[in-house]
Structure formats: C-alpha cells, structure tokens
Write a structure and sequence with these properties.
A six-stranded mixed β-sheet has the order 4-2-3-1-6-5, with helices on one face. The protein has one domain (about 5-135). The chain has helices spanning about 15-30, 60, 75-80, 85-90, 95-115; strands at about 10-15, 35-40, 45-55, 65, 120-125, 130-135. About 20% of the residues are buried. It is an alpha/beta fold and about 140 residues long. It is elongated, with a radius of gyration of 17 Å. The longest helix has 20 residues, at about 95-115.
Length: about 140
C-alpha cells in the first residue's frame, strides 16, 4: 500500500460541526445514509466532508466513511427527537402541526449536537481501528 493510500497516516480530521449534526439527522429522517467522508490521498491532517449515498463505494474509491454518531457525544445522540406520528395523525389536519413540531425539535437538537463534538474518534482501517483527533472548523 502506498503511503498516500494508507489511512493510518491520518492524525487529525477537520470537520464542520454542522456537517456532523446534519449527517446524523439526515440518516435518521431519510432512506439514504450520510457520513463524514475522507478521500485519498491521505496525509496527517485531512478534511472530512458530508457525503450522502445509497450505495457504499469505499471499495472502489478508497474513501473512509466516518459515521456521524462516532463524533457526537452519546447522550446527545440518545436525545434525538423521534417523529411519533401515528397513521391516524398522518391522515388528520394535525399532521402538519406534528411535522412542524418535529422539524423544530430536530433543529434544536442540531444546535445542541454542533456543541457536542468529541475530541477524537477512531476510523476503520485494514489494520483495525485508528485513533484520530477531531478539529472543528466553520
């Protein structure tokens, strides 16, 4: 493996707290998956960007996908607001109000999540988990 293809050379990841919060919320609310993605060539300091996909292409691209749940404090993850609408609610006039309350709750959660980014996380590599520092930007 060439050095620039080796993710264990990564020491720190720069990421936007907003990207992390948005990626987590997107995955909770949509059928696709959102991650923080790092693409080769790899070096000591890398930028992780939000990436939404329906088919994982990491085998083809060599990219590293970091689940947003691995960069946000666990107690904040546990507080993610779940939409608790029943079929009856969805058919009623109240469904718009339920969706609005849920959207407001998610927005408030995202603000909290942006303030709850961890200092480090691990990334998966062929050699096993690799610890990297998280540096907030934006």
């Amino acid at each position: 493996m060439a050095e620039d293809d080796d993710p264990t050379t990564i020491r720190s990841l720069a990421l936007s707290p907003g990207d992390a919060a948005s990626a987590y919320a997107y995955t909770q609310e949509n059928p696709g998956e959102a991650v923080l993605r790092v693409t080769p060539p790899f070096h000591g300091r890398m930028r992780a960007r939000i990436h939404v996909y329906q088919r994982d292409d990491t085998e083809l691209t060599g990219a590293i996908h970091i689940p947003p749940a691995s960069v946000i404090e666990s107690d904040v993850l546990e507080d993610y607001p779940r939409l608790e609408a029943t079929l009856e609610d969805a058919m009623s006039a109240a469904s718009d109000e339920i969706r609005k309350r849920h959207a407001d709750a998610v927005e408030e959660w995202q603000a909290r999540a942006r303030e709850s980014i961890l200092e480090a996380t691990t990334i998966d590599t062929d050699d096993g988990p690799h610890l990297v520092e998280l540096k907030q930007i934006g």
